[in-house]
Amino acid sequence: MLEPVGTESVAGVVGRLCAVPAMDESLAELAIRTRRVGSRPGELAAALADGSVVKAFAFRGATHHLSVQDAGAYLALRAAGRQWELPSWQQYYDLTPTDWPEFRATVREVLADGPLTLDELGAAVTRKAAYRHLRPVFEQGADTLIKPLTWQGDMSFGPPRDRRQTFQRLDDNPRWSGIWDLDEAGPHAITAYFHAYGPATEEHVHYWLGNGLSAGRKRLKSWFAAVEDRLEAVDVEGETAYVLGEDAAELLATPPTDAVRLLPGHDQWVIGPGTKDPHVVPPARRTPVTRKANLVIAGGVVSGTWTTTADTMTVTWFAERGKPPRKALEEQIAGLATILDRPLRARIEIV
Fold it and tell me: In CATH, what number does 182-253 get?
């Protein structure tokens, strides 16, 4: 949805990208708005409020925005490893696998009256004698302990309050239909990935759905095999990759483009295939990409970075990408100035 820019809803954009990183809400909103014609400030917050988008711990243990239609599938994969049953978890939290159903029910009970901050959630849960020993855990942040509560669909992030995160019951969302059956979730997640990021290899799939997601390589291989008859092999510079058969004709008919786009750091254009993919991220320029630099994309390839001050945007163009397309860059800067609602003077340098 970058060329041409799309007309999908906020939830449509999130679903099309599979997920949008949520570590920085301003970057997440920018990633979505750059893919929508006529976008408006606050759209992402509105989508979270109306339940069409869900925020939860997902890929690689980080927070992500997920479309409510797909969230149940991705969370099923995240919960597949049942990490809360590991001996190390049982010992550290003094919660056995048989303790978790009641613990989850307690969390849902204390959230019944509406969203709570982490401190409020911890205080309410640890009033029960069975969980009093968890007070120090909540006082230290409890990030690891609460992740399985989002993976299993007990809660999601709620609206911020006084700049503090809150949590809310996920089943209070009228659009929520629950955690998927794992054997349905796996193939769905793989086909969604190929629809968004194909041509892709099996290793791309393992990176996206395996790294830090608990799905497990054995499960991923079985799900890949389950959808293999829907995939079509293609050659990408001597490497075998795959596309969904239903997408192949459209991809072949799509003309190449040298379009320039300004994207926020950790944008899905690079996170989807992974920063190790040399077709998207030149290996010599991987460091700034992994460090969340804002990105200049030209012809689909990371070709520079950008930063802003109060009234200036500085584009740092990579010398090996040739002469910078000044007109296209200036047009993109003007467009971004409209989104950011402030004038920006263009400054272009080459490194």
Answer: 1.10.10
